[in-house]
Amino acid sequence: MNPHNLDVLTGAYSEQFKFHDENLIMLGWYARRMIKALRGRSHRSVLSLGIGHQVLPNAIVEGLAEGLNRYVILEGSRDIIENFRSRAKLPSHVELIHSLFEDFKPRENFDVIEMGFVLEHVDDPGVIVRQFSRYLVPGGAMFIAVPNARSLHRLIGHEAGLLDNLYRLSAEDLQLGHQRYFDYGSLCKLVLESGLKIVNTEGILLKPVTTGQLRSLNLPAAVVDGLLKVGVNHPEICNSILVEARL
């Protein structure tokens, strides 16, 4: 993938994409958990890495409205920026910046930096985490979420002989621009080696079977919510992993 032409990935954010609905569920949960964690804390300035499906930026604008006076969103795709501008009514304190993450240098540091479902895309995740940890104020919080190679459904598929390598990227992963899978141990190691202290880890979506199998079950919303709630305490085997770290 040409790192300077991220517009080629925009098709993976359409409703026709195989994992579109599941991605929205996980992003919505990630946003809810992050906003809950920040209640009662200082979050006057927030930085997001990427717009993606627009779930996170919209949730932050609405859920952290009280006390938030600076919200910067970095995005490498002009097409995604323009689509977001056309669909969202953004307050004056929201700033959209077209930039590769590696090229960004802020004018002042942030209380909160979130990089939900970012590190699986970049060339060097350690460089990104170390770089942006320098952009936190003392005591500032960083929220990271990534897909988990050792999700329960992948472990079962591996034992059933359906998945030969837990860390192999699928065609859909490649369509999204993924470059790697993390697991619980490798993500925590990366964060700690970047000089941050981990204060909380959670799972996002306890997923026992494949996306297609889940869809065929047509589960009630309450059951899906149950899979999200149970997964909080089982990050090692959830579909994705959420880490909150502090400087």
Strand order of the largest sheet: 3-2-1-4-5-7-6
pLDDT under 50 segments (min length 5)?
A: none
CA distance, first residue to last residue: 32 Å
CATH top level assignment = Alpha Beta
Question: Shape from CA axes?
Answer: globular
Please, how many helices? 9
Query: How helical, in percent, are the residues?
Result: 25-40%
CATH architecture: 3-Layer(aba) Sandwich
H-E order: HEHEHEEHEHHHEHHE
Q: In total, how many beta strands?
A: 7
Domain tally? 1
Radius of gyration: 17 Å
Strand % is 15-25%
Find the CATH superfamily. Vaccinia Virus protein VP39
What is the residue-averaged pLDDT? 92
Major β-sheet annotation: 7 strands, mixed
Quote the CATH topology. Answer: Rossmann fold
Architecture overview:
The protein has 247 residues and is of the alpha/beta class. It has a single domain, classed as Vaccinia Virus protein VP39 (Rossmann fold), CATH 3.40.50.150. Helix content is 36%, strand content 20%. A seven-stranded mixed sheet has the order 3-2-1-4-5-7-6, sandwiched between helices. Helix 1 packs parallel to helix 2. It is globular, with a radius of gyration of 17 Å. The two termini are 32 Å apart. The model has no long low-confidence stretch (mean pLDDT 92).
Question: Layout of helices and strands, plus pairs?
Answer:
Blueprint: H1 20-38, E1 45-49, H2 55-63, E2 70-75, H3 78-87, E3 94-98, E4 110-116, H4 125-133, E5 136-147, H5 152-159, H6 171-175, H7 184-193, E6 197-204, H8 211-217, H9 221-231, E7 240-246
Parallel strand pairs: 1-2, 1-4, 2-3, 4-5
Antiparallel strand pairs: 5-7, 6-7
